Amino acid sequence: MSRRVRNERLALVSMLSPSVLLIGMFVLAPVVYAFYLSFTNTTLLGFDARNPKFVGLDNFTYLLTNDEFLSSLGRTGIFILLSAIIGQTVLGMLAALWLHKTWLRGKGLFGAAVLLPMVVPEVVASLAWASMLYSGPRGTVNQIIGVFGIGAVDWLQTMALFSIILVNIWRGIAFAMIMFQAAIEDVPQELIEAAHIDGASAWQVFRHVTLPLVRQPIFLFLLLTTITTAGIFGLVYFLTQGGPGDDTQLVALYIYDRAFQFSQIGLGSAASVILLILVLIFGLTYVRFAKIEV
């Protein structure tokens, strides 16, 4: 090995080592520790707090037979499907296609309006929506629907799950629009023009030309939004705190309650491991579909 090659490798290692060290300390180490805790009865209170014991698969057995945890998994699945996979993807694609129109005026204003939710902190957005969804007739949303003769709705009580789905869609459209617009801009214009010459309609051009060519960015977005939505906490906590009852108790809130409200660290860690495994399964599925040739 020449001296030049050794110097290049040494420089590469020296530049990458800080990042690798930080990832190992703040990403890999907590994950490994969470896996370890999931096989113990670690708690913050009680007799087991001082001497936690290895309990094997007891935590996982309890969770997978516990109606409360399984219900939170089901609600999380519905939340991901409606707010991320359908809502953000469809509306983000429509926004991207709208901005791609060359004849559209005021695209900058429209784009800025869509991007605004992305720069608003999660806590601020949650409190703002809590005010907008106020149950009284002076609530912003109730004033809007009142124009159409609809009475005031107690959104965070009677339609709590729908409300957090709506807010999460609003939060995620901007990221979807950015990814999809960049992908659409890379579609060769010659293919679109050729399709129009052959008599294809706008829908047929999108379905058979544009959509297959932007398939990989779509599945990349689905992967990222599924990961972030599965672990969403602050938005739901500040809006509903999992209520009313347990109508909006997602897995992230269940983990928080078990680990920090009831001090059952082992059980909360096991729930987080189950969530991680499910997200990995979704991720591998997205990657597989993204590689399908068309």
UniProtKB/TrEMBL annotation:
The keyword ATP-binding does not apply. It is found in: Cell membrane. It comes from the Bacteria. Keywords: Cell membrane, Membrane, Transmembrane, Transmembrane helix, Transport. The chain crosses the membrane at residues 12-36, 78-97, 109-132, 144-170, 218-239, 259-287. PROSITE patterns: ABC_TM1. Residues 74-286 form the ABC transmembrane type-1 domain. One of its GO terms (biological process) is transmembrane transport. It is a multi-pass membrane protein. Signal peptide: none annotated. Pfam families: BPD_transp_1. SUPFAM superfamilies: MetI-like (SSF161098). The keyword Membrane applies. One of its GO terms (cellular component) is plasma membrane. Belongs to the binding-protein-dependent transport system permease family. This is Carbohydrate ABC transporter membrane protein 1 (CUT1 family). It comes from Microterricola gilva. The lineage of its organism: Bacteria, Bacillati, Actinomycetota, Actinomycetes, Micrococcales.
